[in-house]
Structure prediction request, 120 residues.
Amino acid sequence: MEELYVAKSSELGEGERKLIKHGGLEIGVLRANGRLRAILNVCPHQGGPVCEGMMIHRVEEIIGAGHEYRGMRYTDDLHLVCPWHGWEFLIETGRCAGDGAKSLRVFPVQERDGAIYVVV
Ligand code: FES
Prediction:
């Protein structure tokens, strides 16, 4: 295992991201909902640059007590949307929202002494 320097903590604010390269890997490091994530920049669908996609809040349907449809609302969960075909992934786990069998490859990420590191 190898620890890679990513950036100073102050350089990666909420909702920001940075791509780093190591060997043949490209890894996106992003801060979302106050937590850091490190994700391989390869979508499990067809290899798109998933870490360059939008981060959006998950949408859920509101169902009333009588099982009637009451519209939709945004949740606190964030999704990462692949820019090629729109597959969405839960940033918290890397799991695909539409197919739980598919997942992003994630790496341990650490923040200490004002700096961010990824372990590969
Ligand atoms: S390559 Fe990511 S959705 Fe198709």
The first strand starts at residue 3 and ends at 8.
